[in-house]
Amino acid sequence: MARRQTGEESAYREAKRAELLKVCAELIARRGYAATTVREIGDAAGLLSGSLYYYFKSKEDILESLVSGLQDVLWARYQEIVDSADSPRVKLERALRVSLEAMHTHNDEVRVYQNEGAMLHLNERFKPMAARRHEFESMISGFLVDGVAAGEFRADLRVQVAFRLIRDSVWPVVHWYRPGGDVTIDEVADEYLALLFDGLNPRSM
Amino acid sequence: MARRQTGEESAYREAKRAELLKVCAELIARRGYAATTVREIGDAAGLLSGSLYYYFKSKEDILESLVSGLQDVLWARYQEIVDSADSPRVKLERALRVSLEAMHTHNDEVRVYQNEGAMLHLNERFKPMAARRHEFESMISGFLVDGVAAGEFRADLRVQVAFRLIRDSVWPVVHWYRPGGDVTIDEVADEYLALLFDGLNPRSM
DNA sequence: GTCTATATATTGATAGAC
DNA sequence: GTCTATCAATATATAGAC
């Protein structure tokens, strides 16, 4: 039973750490990583700044936990889609819906992931997380290439440019979507997918 | 002639100030406003940090000059388009091309404008610049409403959502477009406009 | 105009008491 | 686990010599 004690303490620590991470996510999402001080985080969490170092090794450690935690969840769902038997167009649609849903379920974390993209590329420590961005590109581009081959997309599609438009139109949604607002994330997804597939033009030209 | 002297000194000052702003734009675009120190700016410009305060009142003054300078150029061109006799669809196309061209001619400044959007909204000092973002929204939304009325766009278009997709797909281009790279900004504009108007679908369904 | 020198504040982080 | 107290580094900004 004495052994057990260690495990239980560690469980509390993990729970509190997760709780603190939510506070960090909200602050860093709103004010930016560089502009958020560890003192502000302590204030918001009801702790003194020094106490945070019982849970985190450093400020960078906090950012790493936030981003890699989100990526773990997201990339697992992407893998399910890649492994499925759906058509390329359906896979693309599902991947974009999963991404948009994360803006509802993990709003702060996605905002951090988006806002601190530059830092993720500049800082050597965050290389693994930056690398995963390339996996996202490979996945989406693969769907586009396969979709063109299957006749589901325009034959003259420039995949590299199309990928960038898709990526850049979907992720910034997190900057204006607010959970509990007057438009649901499913409505956003419906409208965005309609526009990406059909465009602005009238359907019968 | 003694009076003239003041004007000439002031002219030199303005020229050097503009030169320093280019250095600031490059640094702040690459490393972010909060993470860029005045010492780094001084080093990059060949001055000591203290000397910068002969040209700028504060670090915030630098950011304000960068952003409002860009906006002055851009919004003047937007006004020409609004005042023109073109159709809504052509106005939309022209406005997006002007925005994309700025990523070629004022790449660093547009990156700063994009990256520091959150700070522009949080800091009271930058309110006027944040307000101009709403003017951009009004303009583009106006084109969309008029275009739907004129039958140039789908009748069931949800203007608010369409605006956001357009805005979010166009401005992030600055994060990957590089002047002098293997794709010109005109090529990007052609591809993006084709996708926005026609979508991913094959043209003959 | 640019420098030297420095004021003043704030930062991330640590050591040890409780 | 959290606090007190504080370190060392770094930040923006200023005053006055040159």
From TrEMBL, chains A, B:
Domain of life: Bacteria
Native organism taxonomy: Bacteria, Bacillati, Actinomycetota, Actinomycetes, Propionibacteriales
Keywords, ordered alphabetically: DNA-binding, Repressor, Transcription, Transcription regulation
DNA-binding region coordinates: 37-56
Gene: kstR2_2
InterPro entries, alphabetized: Homeodomain-like_sf (IPR009057), HTH-type_TetR-like_transc_reg (IPR050109), HTH_TetR (IPR001647), KstR2_TetR_C (IPR041490), Tet_transcr_reg_TetR-rel_C_sf (IPR036271)
Domain HTH tetR-type: 14-74
Name of the protein in question: TetR family transcriptional regulator KstR2
